[in-house]
Design brief:
Strand content: 15-25%
Structural class: alpha+beta
Number of helices: 9
Shape: globular
Strand order of the largest sheet: 2-6-4-5
């Protein structure tokens, strides 16, 4: 049982809802443990459950017959799975699975979720704001992969993962990092050595430790920051405490 002085959840999107809108969802939310590698959305299959993670990193992946798996986006405790439900379809061509640090999540049946959305325009509006941040992140990823060197691309994705985990250690495999930045495994290894040599990170098998976030942000340049600013303006805080700017009164505008 939650204590009175403890928040109901660490999911920022749920915390951004009004009390009335949260009350529409809360009776149907069940806290479950997510395991690393667990699939939350199976491609081209009707979606039965929606997940609000309370930590970790979840990947949205496009599976291409010849090119293999390419990451389309990530989210964690700032988001929710199955945004396609809000856009009028009950399935997605993309796979969504837990990539980093399996953690609890609040799960709701898809039909109850949509019923709540139909009851409240303000709930629908807030969730569509989140869809907007996802679209901005996806567009930024496309632009970054098309124009930036592999070092900047990896710096950006490491920052994005760092925004969503507690502490400075991130459990990342070379395979996942390659998928994140559209690079071969060998290219990831070389790039990690470059970043480590510059004092930005420390890397060992299956683990990356962030040592100098400011240097990573400098390397990432304008490839990082736009989606994060969009999220903070429309919904709420995103990132480790040292990286989250104080609210300016616009983070949660009236519905």
């Amino acid at each position: 049982m939650s204590q009175p002085d403890q928040p109901y959840t660490t999911n920022t999107l749920l915390n951004a809802l009004s009390d009335d809108d949260l009350a529409l969802l809360k009776p149907h939310l069940i806290r479950v443990d997510l395991a690393r590698g667990q699939v939350l959305v199976t491609p081209n299959t009707p979606i039965e459950h929606v997940y609000f993670p309370e930590g970790g990193v979840v990947s949205i992946v496009s599976i291409m017959a010849q090119s293999g798996r390419i990451e389309a986006g990530i989210f964690g405790r700032e988001g929710v799975s199955a945004t396609c439900l809000l856009l009028g379809t009950d399935r997605s061509p993309h796979e969504t699975f837990v990539q980093v640090n399996g953690s609890p999540a609040l799960r709701i049946d898809a039909d109850r979720y949509l019923a709540a959305v139909r009851q409240s325009e303000s709930l629908r509006t807030m969730l569509l704001r989140y869809v907007q941040t996802v679209l901005v992140q996806t567009a930024q990823s496309m632009a970054t992969n098309a124009t930036q060197r592999v070092e900047a691309r990896l710096a950006r994705w490491l920052l994005m993962c760092h925004d969503r985990v507690d502490g400075d250690e991130i459990a990342l495999t070379h395979e996942f990092m390659g998928m994140m930045i559209s690079a071969e495994r060998s290219g990831v290894t070389i790039t990690l050595h470059i970043l480590e040599g510059a004092g930005m990170i420390r890397s060992k098998r299956g683990l990356v430790m962030i040592r100098d976030r400011d240097k990573l942000e400098e390397l990432a340049g304008d490839s990082y920051g736009l989606p994060e600013a969009e999220y903070r303006q429309l919904i709420g805080p995103l990132g480790p405490p040292s990286a989250v700017l104080p609210f300016d009164g616009r983070a949660n505008p009236p519905l």
